[in-house]
Amino acid sequence: MTKRDNIPHQSESLWRIPVLTQALGYSGVLPFIFLAMAIGLQPQQQLWQQLLAGYALSILCFLLGAWWAIALLRRFRLPLLLSNLVVIVAVFSFVLVPTGYFYLIAATMFIVLTVFERRHPQFSRQPAYYALMRVRLSVIAATSLVAGFVFVAIVNG
Asked: Which residues contact 122 (CB under 8 A, 6 or more apart)?
């Protein structure tokens, strides 16, 4: 068996980059949906609230980390600086702000980052399928976070 035998052939649909990217992207938004639903069903359960906040923070850091690589390759300073600023605000908000309010901050960040990506030339070479997917995923993530906020607010009065 050669090394090539262990690697799926490029014509296999799942291994095509657009298909794989979308599969990973849409599966990555599922925890937002399911955790928001779990909070709605068991709003006093702190575990669901903490998991949703932690997952939102991790995805924000993931997206902003990707900004670094693109900014370095394309030599843009603003996204490089903004990525650091947003991560710092996100982490401090995660630690210092009540969980429900962190959801609102994170939801806002997802939308603002997506708008920034649509307008800044650093991201102009994104494939159309990816740009559309990012908008959809950010809206789903933000909506899930706002739903989490509402569920927590109802319980906390």
From this structure: 67, 70, 71, 74, 76, 79
Give the C-alpha separation, 69 to 49, whole Å.
Answer: 31
Residue 51 lies in a domain: yes
Question: What is d(CA 118, CA 148) in angstroms, rounded to the nearest whole number?
Answer: 27
Tens of pLDDT, residues 87-134:
999 999 999 999 999 999 999 999 999 999 999 888 888 888 999 999
Please count the structural domains in the chain: 1
Q: How far is it, in rounded angstroms, from Cα 101 to Cα 123? A: 30
Beta-carbon neighbour count of residue 111 at 10 Å? 14
- Nearest 5°: CA angle at 70, between 65 and 73? 130
Q: Which domain holds residue 41?
A: 18-156
Nearest alpha carbon to residue 152 among 56, 50, 54: 50
